[in-house]
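job 3f2a | input accepted
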Amino acid sequence: MEQTKLLKNIVRVGWVSSVNAADRTARVKFEDKGETFVSGSLKVLKNTPFIPAAGEVQQTEAEAGGSDSATFESHTHKIKISPWLPSPGDFVLCVYLPNDDGDGFVIGGI
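job 3f2a | predicted structure (110 res):
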């Protein structure tokens, strides 16, 4: 029984109430037995390494062609890829360190 209670306090799901993009933190609203509370600032985990650096313009490779339709000229598209941050209202999974000081992390969206 004690282990179940401890795990319940370590792993939580809730809804994002606010995001600080500069600090990569979010506050999350949790519901427990009919009561609602909002976390302190939780760090959002870094994303997988294949995401390019934030703010860098990414360019697709030049391609030309067309099959079964009109042929098109070689061209490129500039795109911007930013690391994922949750938005207010997103349902997220959070993990807290078991040290009673409230340090926790947003692991990702559900």
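job 3f2a | Strands lie at 11-20, 25-32, 35-38, 42-44, 57-59, 63-65, 72-75, 78-80, 91-96, 104-109.
job 3f2a | closed
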